[in-house]
Structure of Methyl-accepting chemotaxis protein:
Amino acid sequence: MSFKTKISLTFAVLLLVSFFTIAGILSYRLYFRMKVSIQQNLQETVDMLSYPLKGWDDAIKDALLKTATQLENMDLHDIRVMSDLLNHVQYGMKKTTLYLGLEDGSTIKPIGTVPHNYDPRTRNWYKDTKVNTNLVMSHPYMDMFSHHLVVTYSIAIHQKGVFKGALGADVPLTYMQDAAVKHSISKKRIYFFDL
């Protein structure tokens, strides 16, 4: 092999090494910029959606806690007074269905009707609430009243340390989705995760 050929091959190898090094550096920088951009977009989306959903979540929890406190100080045999209270609370809760299930198997529901054979004591939301001292949020399930996917917020009603029933509020998943879309500034897909 002549000297010129050796120099040409060495030069070609150096060019190839330089090309691949520069291509590697550029692709890494491009990857890094894309990664940072995607992370920023995701964080903006999470922040944008979290604020209205958290406010809405806090409002439902606050309404249930205050209503439960009032119910604990009421005569639970006075259906009219309890219905009036639930009607008043229901008025301020958009698209959320409020109801009270009692230990005798009865249900008080300000909006709509209760199915004839409905016994709250057999429902998971009621059972979970009965054994829990805090506000409970269920996993999504098919609601027997509306036949929609809902999440139930519920809290136990105690009088003199005795469990008397559970106050529940069903929130349709479509309401959560509508709220998220309403507060979305772009046409991005929105996913809900149950963690």
